[in-house]
Write a structure and sequence with these properties.
mainly beta, ten-stranded antiparallel β-sheet, 2 helices, 7% helix
């Protein structure tokens, strides 16, 4: 699954601020822990869960969109999401998990990843996250605008040109802020892409059964 239909949904009353998620798979995890690499994460037909003690981001932009996925039996699925974009983000004590159900012989298999521990946060640049749901204990936004045109918001507050929100519906709802600090984050997402990820203290495991971050 890739988020290829950004801006495909017009949410004129979309006014809930979401937070990005950070994710990585076993195939790219080692490389990400050793340096900053371009990365993306998505699970065909599945969402994944993410928690973080703190996310400190700069150049925030958000708009409604639609994700297209394909299930294991080949059926297309569509999911309304809040696309959250950050120019940069630091994430402390991050956990990401995804459960693949009904694996022959093993049953449910859980992939769980933690990073950003020991006082060194995960760092990301040019981050896009397609979020389905979010909970936080607190959220603080600096110099925020709500209801700006989706195709225009990134240039003024995000510190970047229009490419940051290239997939947004220019007539749809959007919001932007110079910065955001969110604590006690719990969220479900469908896809994550970033120009670079740098995961400190990476720890990844595969276990039978259901072992999620929350």
């Amino acid at each position: 699954m890739q988020s290829q239909l950004r801006g495909g949904t017009r949410w004129k009353r979309f006014a809930v601020v979401m937070v990005p998620s950070i994710a990585a798979t076993a195939a790219i995890g080692v490389g990400l822990s050793q340096g900053a690499l371009a990365a993306s994460f998505s699970v065909s037909g599945q969402s994944f869960k993410v928690t973080a003690d703190r996310l400190d981001g700069k150049g925030f932009n958000q708009y409604g969109s639609m994700d297209k996925g394909v299930t294991l039996d080949g059926k297309e699925t569509y999911h309304p999401v809040a696309v959250s974009a950050f120019k940069t983000a630091d994430i402390t004590n991050m956990c990401q998990s995804v459960v693949t159900p009904h694996v022959p012989v093993f049953g449910n298999i859980s992939l769980k990843l933690t990073a950003g521990t020991g006082g060194t946060p995960v760092k990301a640049e040019n981050l896009y996250i397609d979020v389905e749901s979010l909970e936080t204990t607190s959220a603080e936004f600096s110099n925020i605008d709500i209801g700006v045109a989706a195709g225009q918001s990134a240039a003024s507050k995000g510190g970047r040109g229009p490419e940051l929100s290239a997939g947004a519906n220019p007539n749809g709802f959007s919001q932007q802020a110079e910065g955001a600090v969110l604590t006690g984050v719990k969220q479900t997402a469908w896809a994550t892409t970033a120009g670079t990820f740098n995961l400190s203290n990476l720890n990844m495991s595969l276990k039978t059964g259901v072992h999620e971050c929350y």
